[in-house]
Model the fold of this input.
Amino acid sequence: MDRGELPEEALRREIMEEWGPDTAVSTVGRPRLLTVTEISNRPTQTCRMHYDIWFFVSVDERNFRPDSSRMYTEFSEFGWHSSEEARGKVTDGSTLEAISLVEGDFFRNA
Done:
C-alpha cells in the first residue's frame, strides 16, 4: 500500500497495474485473510516482516483477459489451475494458507 492509501484503494490500483485497465473490478468485498511473513534475506531487503492483506475477487474465466505483458512483470507464471495443481506450484506458506481458505467452507458461509 502507498502512504495514505486504504486497502481497497490499493487493491484497485494493483489490479489496474498488474491486470490492465480492461479488468476493472466493480465490487470489492472485505479482506478475508492477513498473513505475516518474516523476511530473511537482509541486507537485500531492508524490511523484516511482510504483511499481506488478502482480498479474493471473483472473475469469469471465459471473460477474464489480463494484460499478459503486465502479468509477466510481476509473475514468472500465471494461469488457471485447480487448487491441487496450485498446491504443487506454490512454495510459500501464506499462499498455501490462502488456497486452504478458498478450498474450505469459509466463502460459502460468508
